[in-house]
Amino acid sequence: MFSPEGPSLRELAVQAMSSVERGYDLLAPKFDHTPFRTPDAVLDAVASALRRTGPFDSGLDLCCGTGAGAGALTRVCRESVTGVDFSAGMLDVARKRTRSQGPRLSWVRGDARALPFAPASFDLVVSFGAFGHFLPRELPGLFAQVRAVLRPGGCFAFPIVAPPRPSSPAYWMLHGFDAVMRVRNALWRPPFVMYYRAFRLGDVRRELEWAGLRVDLYALPEFGVRRDGSPRVRMVVARRPD
């Protein structure tokens, strides 16, 4: 993260003391050189799984950032791919760095909680690594927006990583990160919402079903299994009924 290509500690501090939107505007030029960008291995695994689930004509990358997920969608959609994000800075980078030799590619600035698209516009909606920016109480509205822009039979897909065990260092790192963010937001305005421990599979599945979506889970075998045999990474596919 602190390589010459990535942001410095000072730059990260400035970004963290901004709003989420302004913070990502500042981070955008160096975002692809941070651990926050979804790894290519995850994008490739999801694209491979979606090719078996499709075909799809039009796709939407929700909270697209610098366009990595939209680039993966160009491999599984036949006609068009749209990326939507509320950070103008991230979208500027996406326009410059993401190319498609297949489906038409476009970028839209908008809030995922109030999507600026007509109902039933997409066969497929995906999202990568963005859900920590939504408070649990916002998920019902977010998933309702996704359902509205899906065509009947269309699906909402995203990867979700199994939570670390309490005995692991990663578990306590996540707890520490959440604690720091809560203290920061208690002392400073505007808030910077990034609570990744709040996005739990059981809760998410329930909210998706309440939004009227039929939920299936698919293991991504590229990432192996845990000691108990459960997948390390799953792909959630929430389909709008026909």
TrEMBL record:
<dbReference type="GO" id="GO:0032259">
    <property type="term" value="P:methylation"/>
</dbReference>
<dbReference type="InterPro" id="IPR041698">
    <property type="entry name" value="Methyltransf_25"/>
</dbReference>
<dbReference type="InterPro" id="IPR029063">
    <property type="entry name" value="SAM-dependent_MTases_sf"/>
</dbReference>
<dbReference type="GO" id="GO:0008168">
    <property type="term" value="F:methyltransferase activity"/>
</dbReference>
<keyword id="KW-0489">Methyltransferase</keyword>
<keyword id="KW-0808">Transferase</keyword>
<feature type="domain" description="Methyltransferase">
    <location>
        <begin position="60"/>
        <end position="154"/>
    </location>
</feature>
<protein>
    <submittedName>
        <fullName>Class I SAM-dependent methyltransferase</fullName>
    </submittedName>
</protein>
<dbReference type="Pfam" id="PF13649">
    <property type="entry name" value="Methyltransf_25"/>
</dbReference>
